[in-house]
Amino acid sequence: MPDFPKFVQINEEGPREGFQIEKGPIPTERKVELIDALSETGLTQIQTVSFVNPARVPGWADAEEVVRRFRRKPGVRYTALWLNDKGFLRALAAGDLHLRGSISLTASEAFLLRNQQRTLAQNYEAQHGMIRLYLEHGVPVDRGSIMAAFGCNFQGEVPVATVVDMVGQILDLGRQYGQEIRTVSLADTMAWATPESIKRVVGAVRDRYPDLTLALHLHDTRGMGIANAYAGLQMGVAIYDATVAGLGGCPFAAHRGAAGNVCTEDLVFMLHEMGIETGIDLERLIECARLAEDIVGHPLPGSVKMGGSLRALRERLQAA
After folding, report:
1. For the segment 262-292, what is each residue's pLDDT rounded down to a tens digit?
2. In what residue span(s) does the Pyruvate carboxyltransferase domain sit (predicted)?
């Protein structure tokens, strides 16, 4: 029997991930409304905005205004996404965000060219400048990430050895600047992962770097999100990115259909039913999922917001 984690950390990315891909403009006040509601669920990390080129991602042209307006709740880390030095400096200037430096590599050059207009070699060299910039501003660098770690819509299969090698590159880059990389996130950016490939890639990285903490960023485009999270749990992974109601998707991944991350409330439901703690109030989270659906104005793929939690049903049956 697998040794499941007793506690799982869920990093909510619904606001950032979700509003970047919506076709119609989402009013700033409604973005703030969702962030404030999520703050009351017990989540301890919420990725709020993207500091990216508004010409390419117009959904986050108002990133600074959103950061200025949402309420901060003690105990919650409010984070942001950026892809380059300009984005980081915007995040720094916005103020009152939890900023941690991350070394970001991509396992597919074809996707990297589409997403950031860089080759693998150019992106690797760019990390040196980013690390120096983080340290110049007193921001520690303690994590890394690998996009397209399980496959790519433009390049195809990604060899496991490529991912393991890139983890080594991340650790080496950190050491060059006296930084200890404690966590590396493996991202299934284009939803190629299956439970078997999750086990294969996570297992290979664990075999090579047994003391490294791993996190998973799982997209649900092909309906594998929850199954892949379960496979991650079987491998001992205890940190997951997720999006409320299944919001979102990468604008540059060439997907049709629901392309968001694994749904937060569905993941929390499964974890609680397995006896794994999250610190999250599922009923409040379900309310947030329904709010998210109202904000975007169309159905979202999460299931538990429709079916409800079993806890509420059990309580009604017991009362009857």
Report:
1. 999 999 999 999 999 999 999 999 999 999 9
2. 8-286
**Alpha helix stretches (DSSP H) within 95-192:** 109-116, 120-136, 160-176
Pairing of strands 213-218, 183-188: parallel
Helix residue spans in 79-118 (DSSP H): 85-94, 109-116
* Rounded Cα–Cα distance for residues 102 and 181 (Å): 9
Which residue, 197, 257, 266, 208, is CA-closest to 232? 197
Active site residues: 250
Q: Which residue, 250, 118, 97, 125, is CA-closest to 188?
A: 250
Enter the DSSP assignment of 257: S
Q: How far apart are CA 45 and CA 71, in angstroms?
A: 14
Task: Tell me which residue has tokens 């999750």.
Answer: 198
From residue 227, how far is each of 90, 279, 293 by CA, in Å?
37, 22, 23
pTM of the model: 0.95
Q: Dump pLDDT digits (tens) for 112-163.
A: 998 888 999 999 999 999 999 999 999 999 999 999 999 999 999 999 999 9
- Other Cβ atoms within 10 Å of 73 Cβ, number: 15
User: φ and ψ at 54, to 5 degrees?
Assistant: -65, -20
Residue 34: helix, strand or coil by DSSP?
A: helix
